Each structure stands twice: as structure tokens, then as C-alpha cells.
Amino acid sequence: MEIIRTVKELKHAVEQAKVQGAKIGLVPTMGALHAGHVSLIERARCENDFVVVSVFVNPTQFNNPTDLKTYPRTEEADCEKLEAAGVDVAFIPSVEEIYPEPDTRVFELGPVAEVMEGAMRPGHFNGVAQIVSKLFEMVQPDRAYFGEKDFQQIAVIRKMVELCGFNIEIVDCPIKREDDGLALSSRNVRLTAEQRKVAPMIHKILTESVNFAKNHTVEETIKMVTDELNKVEFMEVEYYQIVDPLTMQPIAKWDDTKLNPVGCITVYCGDVRLIDNIKYTK
Ligand code: PAF
Question: By C-alpha distance, which of 227, 240, 237, 233 is closest to 195?
């Protein structure tokens, strides 16, 4: 595995692979890698000849400076995991390398980016669009891989791809969970031992809500999930919305979408912000 820190070297390495006819897979990450990231890399490995993983804590997508400061940074351990996963290039640039000058681009992402995370974290999705579009321009991969834990982010990235006209397949990959159901997240390491014990309640209550939903309205289901989670020590639900899986718009009735609705949740467990989601089958 080659560790590359400059855009020039990255472009050169990818170019070399492309002249040999290689299909390129890109897995963008912010590091603090866990089994969820490894599952994206394994999928990319299977479907491409050359795999690039970027490790970059992107400042433009953080609307909260404390969150940016406390975001876990574990480069040495990340490189070991990337090497073991058979990655060809680990791209680990500095902030100056990616943003030699401020990125002032504003993406017209529309309604998919206005609800939920978009409403709670102003500017977050524009920052995601900035970094992912830059990575797409640099690598020009055939496919790029994203985890479904960040369900809304995938819809936003698809919109950015459409706006920019990239010819890149966006591959969404299922959520990886701990044995007790907690969705893997780089933020989980910040949970105290007591918080870690109750954190699986998020997935447990979401799973129970799938049965509950069969005999209840959307509104009742949202209330049940919110009330039950708020009863758990350390937990405070920021939002729970049940949305159309393509438009991300909240539904009022189960029949408001032809597709399987998805419940998207953000919960504070102490001061750790956790997100998760669940599919409702119709
Ligand atoms: O999901 C993430 O880790 C980040 O938002 C991404 C896609 C790597 C962009 O910084």
C-alpha cells in the first residue's frame, strides 16, 4: 500500500493504474476506521482493480468547532487497517493540501439537504459536497462507496453527482453493527462505559417500532420511538423523522411514499451525537 499526501502524487498513482485498464474504487473516510469502513473497502476490493481510501477530517463539514476538535484521529491504526484490507492507495492529505484557498462553492442541493441533518447542522452538507466533489475530481473513480448509517448523506451525494455531471456509480453499503445492535461509528469511542451500555437501545427501539408501525400511524410511531428513547438514561432525541427514501421528505401517512419508508434518528447519548436509521416494510 502506498501512503500519499499530495494531490499531484495521488493523480499520478491513479493515472498509472488507469493506463493499465484498472477500474478504480474510492472509499472516502474521515479516519478512525472501524469494521464498517472495512466492509466498504472489502466491497470496493471485490468490484474494482484499484482501491483508493481517503482519510481526511474535512473541516468544512463541521458546523461545531468542538466536534471538529474532538473528532478522533488515529492515523497509525488506520494505516494498519488499510494495509490489512488490501488497499492500493491511502490518501492522507493535510488541510492546506485540500484547501490551498477557501472553498467558496455553494451547491444547490435542494430539498434532500434541507431536512434532518441539513436543518440541524447548517452548512454541513455543503461541506460534504465540497470535499466529496474534490475527491471525485482528483481520483475520477468508477465507483465510490458510502455507508447507509449516513442515509441522508448518500442522497445528498447523489444530488451533488447529478449537479456536477460526474459519471461515477455511488454504491451504498449496509450499516455494520456491534453484536448488541449499536451502529458502528467513529464517535462510539467517546461514549463512557455507562453510556455505551445503553447506546444499543437506539437500534432496539427502532427495531421494535417496525412491528408497532403495523398497527399505528406515522405520528404515533414517531412519538413511541421518541418517548421510549428519551426515557433511557443519558439519551435525548434530537429528531426522529420517517421519510421517503429518495426525496428524504418526511411522510405524514404510510401511503405517502410508494417505497419503503425509512426512519432517521439522531440521539445525544451524553454529549455524543449518534445517528441511526431503520427501514419500514410495507
Ligand atoms: O461520511 C463521512 O465520513 C464523511 O462525511 C465523508 C463522506 C468522508 C466526507 O468527509
Answer: 233
User: Is 185 close to ligand 1, i.e. is its CB under 6 Å away?
Assistant: no
Per residue in 236-273, pLDDT (tens digit) is 999 999 999 999 999 999 999 999 999 999 999 999 99
Q: How far is the CA of 206 from the centre of ligand 1 (A)?
A: 24
According to DSSP, residue 38 is labeled H
Whether ligand 1 lies within 6 angstroms of the CB of 275 is answered as: no
Going by C-alpha positions, the residue among 1, 15, 9 that lies closest to residue 97 is: 9
Cβ atoms of 43 and 173 closer than 8 Å: yes
Asked if residue 131 has its Cβ within 6 Å of ligand 1, the reply is yes
d(CA 29, CA 18): 22
- pTM reported for the whole predicted model: 0.97
The neighbour count for residue 225, using CB atoms within 10 Å, is 24
Domains and their CATH numbers in the chain: 2-173 (3.40.50.620), 186-279 (3.30.1300.10)
